[in-house]
Design goal:
The chain is an alpha+beta fold and about 700 residues long.
Length: about 700
């Protein structure tokens, strides 16, 4: 029958038309793929400098864009925000389940009976690799290497670690049995080998220096791991790997602590985890205290205290303070100042660490816990509880800092400088109403982000694209053929990136669409960033109006200055330089917000919104009729429209969520008259294109 059907479809050698399918009422929508940007790339697109983005991701354990951006907002005034001191990393093996509950109960009881000792300063652990330093850009590799090591065949144990108790007048704890100690040392060595190529060059001497971080390494010869023509000498002490229960305690407490240790059952079956932590180098040599009462400074040298924050205090300052006021540094903000010690209490140092990764090293069925261990008791100090309860960044699920904290930081910045733009905006509203003669007409404000920029596409491009004499050399077809001369040369371009050819093409497409839609533009304002000037110029080219409309360079359209440390603020091209380069610039225009005012600004997020709103209102009042085009940055679409449509400024964390969804050459349209404005669908379709990786012809060799 199938053959007959096939034959019936052909008559005289010609195909008979098949019956046409009826149209579907609800066709499947075309799926528009999005670029798979990493959190680091998103932070760069949001306008954060490269080193700050790397520092924020490392400090928050690469837990996502939101937490990293909130960290940057909280640390906006941190004096070491732009310091390149690396974080310090440490590799632990930590118990879980019933055995962990036993240890936490022991910690609490020992604190209540005997007070603080050295063991309370850290979460229960066995140290595999002591503190070592690594640059922020390698933080993610350090974490992923743990998973790589444990995915190797035979890496996972099928039994729990065997421990042997040990007690002396100055130390109590468990040592790892030899068979499992050797296993843990092999894991540590494999981990160091895995990460060594990323954080240090592949030379024996440097690798040997890193292995000095092994707490169980000595210089005597015992076992050797070959490496080229030389070897690393290690002596895996039989009982060197240990879990500390108590140390640095007076002899008078020995019997009490001994009795508590004897209650522990080290044979209980439990799963163990590799955990990679890091800490702020400012913690080194300090004690960590937790804020239990808020405090508002009354003097300029005092530190604001927020409940739940951690503070780094030196033991010398605590011991020598005559009035119980000590100098400390905030974990939350990085700021330092004097504070009342009585508003704080000591907590575990590891509470202020960042957990980067945890991976199981064994797979066993944990012993059932017949009775939930009570972790809290009446009269227990929260100092002891803090060593039990994980800190914000030590949790498995890390949530972003609460909005009130971010708002408090913004209010702190707000006290530095009054919101003078707020009054100016009211003035602009009145000017707009008074200037309209007769029946008011609807006006359009088009707000646009710049196109694709070179530095986000090619990374560190300047060293490769300028020769020894400072001349620009094109290294990719997506780079412009020529770059105009400017004061500062290649150093200026490093801070003020141009567009790629794709970026200029994107902008021309937008201009062509505006022309096709019969959209008219009467007034053009542009951020002084060169990428924005190029975008604006390309839009006008697409509209065939480049020679008709003058571009007004407005510094008030630049990005939020909190994202820019002083040394990274660009030296923008002057109107004269831009005109010489072929751009149609209004050289007689007087900016609404001066360049110097922008560079001297210490604005909070609300002030950033008000500054942008002031520019928008001023542009409308300066030219009471006609449509306005504003070309700026990612946040410009929101900050320049927010006040106009009658909404309050967003918080810093809210703004960062919004701007993650604003790609290159996005456009917003605000339409209205007098003081009634609304967002409308923009006349341009979305502009989507794939990521085209760089081709290296040598792969064909």
């Amino acid at each position: 029958m199938f053959v007959n059907l096939k034959k019936s479809q052909f008559q005289n050698g010609h195909a008979v038309a098949m019956a046409s399918l009826p149209p579907r009422r609800n066709p499947t929508p075309t799926k528009i793929s999005k670029q798979n940007l990493t959190p680091f790339q998103i932070l760069l697109q949001m306008g954060f400098p490269k080193h700050r983005a790397e520092k924020a991701l490392a400090a928050t354990g690469h837990r996502g864009v939101q937490l990293a951006s909130d960290w940057l907002l909280a640390h906006v005034n941190d004096p070491l925000l732009d310091d390149n001191s690396p974080r310090e990393y440490i590799l632990y093996v930590c118990p879980t389940g019933t055995f962990l509950n036993q240890l936490q109960s022991f910690w609490l009881k020992s604190f209540n009976l005997c007070g603080w000792n050295g063991a309370h300063n850290f979460t229960p652990h066995i140290t595999l690799v002591s503190f070592f330093k690594a640059p922020d850009e390698d933080a993610l590799h350090l974490a992923l290497s743990l998973k790589t090591v444990m995915e190797r065949q035979g890496a996972v144990l099928n039994e729990s670690l065997k421990l042997e108790s040990y007690m002396s007048p100055n130390f109590m704890g468990f040592f790892v049995a030899e068979e499992h100690a050797d296993y843990l040392k092999r894991i540590a060595m494999q981990y160091v080998k895995e990460v060594s190529n990323a954080i240090i060059s592949d030379t024996y001497e440097q690798f040997d220096a890193l292995t000095a971080c092994f707490p169980w390494c000595t210089t005597t010869t015992a076992r050797c791991i070959p490496r080229g023509s030389r070897s690393i000498n290690l002596e895996p002490h039989v009982k060197s790997l240990h879990l500390t229960l108590a140390y640095q305690f007076p002899n008078s407490q020995y019997q009490q602590l001994k009795a508590l240790v004897e209650e522990l059952d080290s044979n209980v079956s439990c799963n163990w985890e590799l955990r990679l932590y890091s800490r702020d180098p400012r913690i080194t040599g300090k004690q960590v205290y937790k804020v239990i009462h808020p405090y508002t400074p009354t003097e300029c040298d005092e530190l604001e205290l927020r409940t739940g924050d951690y503070l780094y205090l030196s033991s010398e300052a605590l011991a020598n303070s005559p009035d119980c006021w000590v100098e400390g540094t905030s974990w939350l903000t990085g700021l330092s100042g004097l504070l009342p010690e009585s508003y704080t209490e000591r907590t575990a140092e590891s509470d202020a660490w960042t957990l980067h990764k945890k991976v199981s090293i064994n797979s066993v069925t944990p012993t059932a816990n017949p009775k939930q261990v009570e972790l809290k008791s009446s009269g227990a100090s929260s100092a002891s509880n803090s060593s039990i309860e994980p800190s914000v960044l030590n949790n498995e699920e890390v949530s972003a800092p609460s909005p009130p904290i971010v708002q408090e930081i913004e209010m702190e910045l707000g006290s530095i400088k009054e919101n003078f733009y707020e009054n100016l905006i009211d003035i602009q509203r009145h000017i707009m109403a008074e200037d309209v003669v007769g029946e008011p007409t609807y006006r359009n404000v088009f707000i646009m982000r710049h196109g694709e920029r070179i530095d986000f596409t090619f990374g560190s491009w300047v060293p490769y694209c300028f020769d020894e004499t400072g001349n620009y050399v094109r290294k990719d077809l997506n780079m412009p053929k020529l770059l105009p001369e400017r004061k500062g040369g290649q150093k200026a371009y490093a801070k003020d990136s141009p567009l790629t050819n794709m970026g200029m093409f994107q902008a021309r497409l937008v201009g062509e669409t505006l022309k096709d839609q019969n959209i008219t533009i009467d007034h053009v304002y542009c951020s002084p960033s060169f990428r924005c000037v190029q975008t604006c110029d390309s839009v006008l080219q697409g509209m065939h109006r480049k020679n008709e409309l003058l571009i007004k360079i407005e510094p008030g359209l630049f990005e939020w200055m909190a994202w820019y440390p002083p040394e990274t603020v660009p030296d923008w091209m002057t109107p004269e330089e831009l005109t010489k380069a072929g751009y149609n610039i209004d050289e007689n225009y007087v900016a609404m917000v001066s360049e110097q005012e922008i560079k001297d600004s210490r604005e909070n997020c609300e002030q950033f919104y008000l500054r942008s709103a002031f520019v928008t209102r001023s542009a409308l009042s300066s030219d009471p009729r006609g449509n306005v085009l504003l070309v700026g940055h990612t946040a410009t679409l929101d900050t320049c429209s927010r006040e106009l449509i009658g909404k309050k400024p967003r918080s810093g964390s809210e703004m960062t969520k919004v701007i993650q969804k604003i790609p290159y050459c996005s456009m917003a349209l605000v339409r209205g008259k007098e003081d009634k404005w609304e967002l409308h669908e923009p006349p341009c379709l979305p502009l989507t294109h794939s990521v085209n990786q760089r081709f290296d012809w040598k792969v064909l060799l």
